[in-house]
């Protein structure tokens, strides 16, 4: 008689054969696009099932003591794998022995018999402890360490890979949580918030969960202890390169991020791709222009792009609704001129697109080296590249500040600042007042006009921080300000009618792939297509928010969705 488990093993053997046969056909055939999409979809779903199965298999190996199987059992297993039949699977049930065995423990069996790396085997057993339960010293089963995530893991409609990633993060903070009732309460809170993030916006969940765990690990370290740990540390020569480790305070990281953002933005003078290319040649020894300067360069040798730049401004096309804008949180030294260039000459952004394939890490190094190699007057080593002077926007929540909340000061890139760092920034920096209401909507900062004013752009970027599409990680300085009320149809250039989108999602909105939704007294939200969101919930991109801010935004979106469906709130779904 074939048992249920033997029959299940036979099904796995047949499933493997079917998958191999399907892959062979898909790999050799000229696929119709719909079949290619179906192939990718089924493959992802199979991967989800296998991810869940791997942890359950590790749990089963440990729970049954399979590493103690005798030699005959392993021989029967080999025969079953070669000739999968109901009888061979039944014969492979095996038996365990006491005393000396081939494998010392479950991890050893996974490594030596299944060829799983030891680190991977350990990770799977840890996840089994967190999500399925473990085994104590007496061999008795124990409850899962993360019961709420365990329930999510066993839900077939939930992607187990996201639950596994969250569990791994939370487990890494196990020692930092401490012991006792307070530690259990903190762990339960982390679980609840992790589950909330996974349900609200899976694409941003990993970032927020990592941030929560980082807060737990950081603890309440005093500033003196932090200052003793910061610095630039030389690791030495590795593979022909000198490596450094940079450890900075959050406020210092905000300036570095702002500097890098200026270099990454091709719409700024500092981000000029050709200028970066030429500047890099100054310190890498690559071939550079043999002419000393533009005055000594003959007409035939001057770049065509420079002739085009000197052409009459009237030849430039008018800007579209989405302006190629300069970052509010980081700008070049010539702030006004660079913003004007970004607004009035959008083709500047695409003129150097051929060099966009340069890695961001390399571009940032070029910008940093240009800054270090400039002379005392601030002149860059090459005339095509201007030095970037970072400008950081800090959003202060007045109510949280009075309540002494730890996240009352947050940069536009989502970096939390301590009270001391925020005070220092206020003493040393220019202050741009940006007034927000309780639902993150910037208030009136300028009169109605065709193009958004500099103050309006600063307010929009500071409030929204990045692309409005849920899960998109494009920061504000690389996004376009979008008229939700089309100007050519009588729309007004008001703050409440402004959206912030990256180039891809801005185009996607106008193509009708999703809709912006105007909410009275609140920031605009997003309604995805039914194919992407069968629940049809109003959503906010929380990628650039702190975990606490993200939870508040998700609660606002859920509350707004409920009122909208109940007919208690009038919303406007913006036409493409």
TrEMBL record:
UniProt feature, compositional bias: Basic and acidic residues: 345-358
Region (Disordered), start-end ranges: 300-358
Keyword terms: Endonuclease, Hydrolase, Nuclease
Keyword Repeat (UniProt): no
Composition-biased stretches (Low complexity): 322-332
GO molecular function, one term: endonuclease activity
Biased composition regions of type Acidic residues, renumbered to the chain: 333-344
Protein name per the record: HNH endonuclease domain-containing protein
